[in-house]
Design goal:
Number of strands: 0
Radius of gyration: 20 Å
Strand content: under 5%
Length: 138
Amino acid sequence: MLSRARAAYRWFRAFRRTRPFWGAVWMVAGGWTVLKFSLSSVQLIVSTGFGGVAGYLVGGGMILCGLIPLAAPRQRYTFGLLGCVLAVVSLVVSNLGGFLLGMALGVLGGSMLVGWGAKRPRGAARAAAGAVPEAVEA
C-alpha cells in the first residue's frame, strides 16, 4: 500500500513539474469564485437576459482557461491571456468579479500561466550556469 502511495506521489510530482500547475489552480479557483458569486435562481437569470448569463459564461470560461493548459501546456500563453481578460471582464459582469477576489485570483493565475517555463534538464541547467556570456562588440 505504501509503495502505491509513493508511486502516485512521484507521478503527481512529475505531472506538476511538467505543467503550469499552480497557475491553473489559481485560475480555476478564481473562476469558481466568480461562478459562485453569480449563482442565482434560473427564473432570475432568464428574466435578466445576458446580464444574468454573463457571470456563468465568464466563470466557466475562466475554469476552462485554467484546465486546458494542464492538458496542453504549449497553449499556456493563449489561455493565460484569455483567462486574464475574462478575469478583468468579470469585474463588470459578475458582482465586481466575485467581490474582487475572483478577479484577483484569475489575474494571478493567468499571469502564472503565461510566465511558466518548462523545467530544463539538469545537465543543460548546469551547462547554462557555468557558461560565460559572450562580449558584445560596440
